[in-house]
Amino acid sequence: MDKPGIKKPIGSKLFVLSGPSGVGKGTLREHALSGLGMIYSISCTTRSPREGEREGTDYRFISKEDFNDRIERGMFLEYALVHGNYYGTQSEDVRAEMRLGRDVLLEVDVQGARQVRRVMPSPESVLIFVAPPSIETLEVRLRRRGTEPEDKIQLRLNNARAEMEAIPEFDHVIINDNLEQASSVLRDIVLENRRKHEMTSSEKVKI
Ligand code: 5GP
User: Fold this and answer.
1) Is the CB of 112 under 6 A from ligand 1?
2) 207 C-alpha to ligand 1 centroid (Å)
3) Cα–Cα distance, 121 to 102 (Å, whole number)
4) Quick check: CB of 87 below 6 Å from ligand 1?
5) Is the pLDDT of residue 3 over 90?
6) Domains of the chain in sequence order
7) Cα 146 from Cα 148, distance rounded (Å)
8) Which atom from ligand 1 is nearest to the alpha carbon of 163?
9) pLDDT 10s digits, 83-100
10) Which of 34, 36, 39, 31 lies closest to 183, judged by CA?
11) Could you tell me the distance, in angstroms and rounded to a whole number, from the CA of residue 109 to the centre of ligand 1?
């Protein structure tokens, strides 16, 4: 039997970052999470690479046939059709890291976050919504980014309005108004969830 007060190995968590396209999830993740020992899970997508995106670093760019084949083989923890393209997280990518006791971070849309919550309930999964200060700010950011043609911008803005309605389903909301502040909130969320887990583990041992 474990001695009182001795901590069991800390279980890992799946942090899920969601929010409208253009809200700055990627920048926020890179800025906030370096040095926190978090594994970022690289999604598969049927979208074509944008200029500067790298295979295996930004996404695994695969064909629709390949994506369908992976769906049929049950390889995805979650997947969704987002703005006309498929995106998905492979189960084994996540579970292999979690088995090693590592925390994993996903960047997925709201449909994906819901699926994760079903297969991995709280507290193992932590759902974080990154919101823009307003839809108008998001529109400005999407145009400034310049990666999408006008019709795609309109599609992303319409989806953003729908996604914002899902905020109550999330454990935490971060308004990405200022990168420094938003990063510090995200780091705090991660550290707080780890700390809570440590406390629960040590209390369980005491009982
Ligand atoms: P983008 O095309 O701008 O890279 O991504 C479009 C949207 O797809 C973003 O909201 C992004 O979070 C979401 N996304 C990226 N990877 C995944 C994934 O593996 N699963 C799901 N459900 N959504 C994803």
Assistant:
1) yes
2) 42
3) 17
4) yes
5) no
6) 14-206 (3.40.50.300)
7) 6
8) 10
9) 899 999 999 999 999 999
10) 31
11) 5
